[in-house]
Structure to design on (489 residues):
C-alpha cells in the first residue's frame, strides 16, 4: 500500500499502572510495532510511579515511537480518553487503538483489531470477551461481573435495539474519521464514557465490528463501582431513547450524518403512504428528492421518476429518469410543462421560506387530473406539548425540530397553506412516530411493528395530538385551472 497505508497509533490509558505498564507495552507484537506511527501513554495523575516508569522506557533505543504524557490532575477514565482521542485527531492519525496499561486486554491481539480495518474497511472494532462466554470464566472474570456483564448488555441491546455481545470491553479501535464526527468531549468523565461513545457510533450509523478476545484478570485493582456503573449505563441507554423521541434533548447525541434522511420502510410511514397513493406507469416529479431514495419504492410500479433538489448531481444515489439541480425557493424558471401525474413534496415544505410561492409554481407542472402529495411534521404532537410545558424547545439535526426548518406546521396551518395556494384537499393521512428510526430497526422488527400498531390506534383516535406527520393528497382547484387557461388566451 505504500504511502496509502493508514496511520495507526496505540493509546495507552494508565492509572496506577507502575507494575504492569512496561510489560503491557513490551507485549505488543513486533510486526505491529513496526507499522505503528506511535504509542502514546497518558498517565492520569497516578498516585504511584507510573509516569516515571514510562519515562524510563524513553531512554531505551527500541522505544523511539513511544510518547509519554501526564495529566496535571486526575480527569477520570472518560476524561483521559477525551484527551487521548483529541490528541489522535490533532496528530492526524487514521486509527487509534485503546489499550489499558494494566494488561487486562492482551496486546498480542492487536492484529485482530487492525486487520478488519485494512481488509474489510471497518471503522470501529471492539475486542469482545463474551462472544465465547465460557472463555470469560476461564480467564478468571469474577462470576458476579460475568453475570452483570450479561444482564447489562442484554438490557442495553433491548433498549437500543442492538445486537452486541458485550458493551463493556475496553479493547477498542476507532477511526479518527468517526471520532471527528461525534461530540465525544460531551461524554461523561467516568467509566460510562464507553457506553456513551457506543451510542454515538450507532447514532452516526457506524456499525461496530466485534472480534473475540481472551479474558485475563490478574491482581490489578478495579476502580469501578459496579452498582453505580450499572445505574449510569442503564440511564445512558434510556436517555438516548428519550432524546430520539424528543421528550428530552441531549447535546452529546446531536450528530450530523452525511445523509441525514433515509427511506422509512414501516407500512405506516410517510414514505410508504406516499408510495401507496401513486399509480403504476405514471410520471412523478419529486421536489426536494435528496439522494432519490423515494425512487427505490416507486421502481416496482414502473413510474417515470424525476427529481429536483439543490444538491449536486454527484450525491444522487438512486436511479431516476432525470435530475434537475435547482434552488427550491425559485422553481418558476424550470422549463417544464403540464406533464406530471404526481408531484411529491415529502418533508420539504418546512425548509422553504416562501412555501406558498413554491406550491403556486409547481401547480403549472401538473396534468389536469394530476395530484400533489405533500407531507410535513406535526409540531403539535404530544411530546412537544410536554416539552413546552416543561420549558424545553431545542432544535436538532433531525426530526420535526431539524435546525434547517424555517417553518413548523400544525394540521390546520398545513391545510390552510395548501388551500390558499390553489389546491383542493382530497385525502389526509397520518403517521405514527417512526419507531424504526428510533430503534434502528429498518422496519423489520416484529416487536417494534407491534408497538407501532398500538400507537397508530392513538393516531387515528386523535391525530392532532399523536400524529408525527401529516400526508395530504390534493389536486389543483378547477377555478385555478380556469384562471390559468384564461391567462394563456
Amino acid at each position: 500500500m505504500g504511502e496509502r497505508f493508514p496511520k495507526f497509533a496505540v493509546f495507552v490509558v494508565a492509572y496506577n499502572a507502575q507494575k504492569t505498564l512496561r510489560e503491557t507495552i513490551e507485549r505488543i507484537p513486533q510486526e505491529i510495532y513496526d507499522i505503528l506511527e506511535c504509542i502514546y501513554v497518558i498517565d492520569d495523575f497516578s498516585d504511584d510511579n507510573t509516569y516515571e516508569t514510562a519515562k524510563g522506557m524513553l531512554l531505551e533505543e527500541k522505544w523511539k515511537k513511544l510518547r509519554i504524557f501526564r495529566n496535571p490532575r486526575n480527569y477520570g477514565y472518560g476524561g483521559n480518553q477525551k484527551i487521548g482521542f483529541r490528541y489522535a485527531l490533532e496528530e492526524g492519525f487514521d486509527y487509534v487503538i485503546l489499550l489499558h496499561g494494566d494488561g487486562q486486554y492482551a496486546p498480542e491481539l492487536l492484529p485482530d483489531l487492525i486487520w478488519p480495518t485494512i481488509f474489510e474497511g471497518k471503522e470501529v472494532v471492539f475486542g469482545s470477551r463474551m462472544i465465547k462466554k465460557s472463555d470469560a470464566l476461564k480467564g478468571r472474570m469474577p462470576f458476579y461481573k460475568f453475570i452483570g456483564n450479561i444482564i447489562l448488555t442484554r438490557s442495553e441491546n433491548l433498549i437500543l435495539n442492538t445486537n452486541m455481545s458485550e458493551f463493556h470491553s475496553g479493547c477498542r479501535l476507532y477511526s479518527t474519521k468517526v471520532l471527528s464526527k461525534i461530540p465525544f468531549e460531551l461524554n461523561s468523565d467516568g467509566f460510562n464514557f464507553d457506553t456513551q461513545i457506543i451510542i454515538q457510533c450507532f447514532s452516526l450509523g457506524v456499525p461496530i465490528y466485534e472480534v473475540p478476545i481472551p479474558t485475563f484478570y490478574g491482581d490489578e485493582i478495579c476502580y469501578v463501582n459496579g452498582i453505580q456503573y450499572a445505574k449510569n449505563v442503564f440511564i445512558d441507554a434510556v436517555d438516548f431513547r428519550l432524546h430520539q423521541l424528543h421528550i428530552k434533548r441531549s447535546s452529546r447525541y446531536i450528530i450530523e450524518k452525511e445523509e441525514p434522511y433515509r427511506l422509512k420502510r414501516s407500512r405506516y410511514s410517510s414514505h410508504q403512504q406516499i408510495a401507496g397513493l401513486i399509480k403504476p406507469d405514471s410520471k412523478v416529479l419529486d421536489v426536494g428528492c435528496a439522494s432519490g431514495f423515494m425512487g427505490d419504492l416507486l421502481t416496482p410500479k414502473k413510474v417515470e421518476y424525476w427529481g429536483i433538489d439543490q444538491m449536486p448531481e454527484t450525491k444522487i444515489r438512486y436511479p431516476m429518469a432525470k435530475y434537475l439541480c435547482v434552488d427550491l425557493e425559485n422553481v418558476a424558471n424550470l422549463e417544464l410543462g403540464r406533464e406530471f401525474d404526481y408531484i411529491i413534496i415529502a418533508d420539504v415544505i418546512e425548509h422553504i421560506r416562501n412555501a406558498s410561492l413554491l406550491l403556486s409554481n409547481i401547480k403549472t407542472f401538473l396534468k389536469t387530473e394530476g395530484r400533489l402529495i405533500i407531507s410535513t411534521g406535526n409540531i403539535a404532537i404530544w411530546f412537544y406539548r410536554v416539552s413546552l410545558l416543561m420549558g424545553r424547545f431545542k432544535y436538532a439535526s433531525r426530526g420535526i425540530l431539524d435546525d434547517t426548518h424555517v417553518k413548523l406546521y400544525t394540521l390546520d396551518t398545513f391545510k390552510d397553506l395548501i388551500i390558499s395556494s390553489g389546491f383542493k384537499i382530497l385525502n389526509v393521512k397520518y403517521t405514527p412516530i417512526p419507531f424504526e428510526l428510533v430503534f434502528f430497526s429498518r422496519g423489520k422488527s416484529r416487536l417494534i411493528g407491534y408497538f407501532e400498531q398500538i400507537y397508530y390506534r392513538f393516531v387515528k383516535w386523535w391525530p392532532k395530538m399523536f400524529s408525527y406527520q401529516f400526508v395530504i393528497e390534493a389536486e389543483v382547484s378547477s377555478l385555478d385551472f380556469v384562471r390559468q387557461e384564461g391567462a394563456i388566451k
Confidence is low (pLDDT under 50) at residues 485-489. The chain has two domains: 2-253, 270-488.
